[in-house]
Specification:
The protein is mostly helical and 136 residues long. It has one domain. Helix content is 82%, strand content 0%. The chain contains 6 helices and no strands. Helix 1 packs across helix 6 and helix 3 runs antiparallel to helix 4. The model has no long low-confidence stretch (mean pLDDT 88).
Length: 136
């Protein structure tokens, strides 16, 4: 059981990077749906196709950089692929404080989708170069 848990944990960065790449492509192709369906997005300003597609491209490129970093067992590339999402997560923590530290659905969404994934990758970066050789 412990060995299975370690393998699943080692594959989590690949899953996160893959989700970022796919989600980025979807955001780029369907900006209106992203704006209307993603919790909290519409409350931070009017719809802007250019800005939303830029975000899609950022997620897409972050995912691809991270996957490539895993593929060649390069933790520095994995961290580079995570940098934007990490700062984006810190910004969402700031928004949460600004909203009065509400433990609501928006915070839970941000915590699970925006904040935790990049922090997980950063904290496991030292193992990435070792473990990625076994999973790719």
């Amino acid at each position: 059981m412990k060995k299975l848990s370690k393998r699943l944990l080692a594959r989590l960065p690949l899953l996160i990077f893959g989700i970022w790449a796919i989600a980025g492509g979807m955001i780029f192709c369907f900006p209106v749906q992203f704006y209307n369906l993603t919790p909290g997005v519409s409350s931070y300003g009017p719809y802007n196709t250019h800005f939303i597609r830029d975000i899609g491209l950022i997620y897409f490129s972050s995912g691809l950089i991270g996957i490539y970093g895993l593929r060649i067992s390069n933790a520095a590339l994995c961290i580079a692929g995570t940098a934007w999402s990490l700062f984006h997560g810190v910004f969402h923590l700031h928004l949460w404080v600004h909203r009065g530290l509400s433990f609501d659905g928006l915070f839970l969404f941000d915590l699970s989708v925006v904040i935790m994934p990049p922090f997980f990758i950063i904290f496991t970066a030292k193992k990435i170069s070792i473990e990625s050789k076994k999973i790719l």
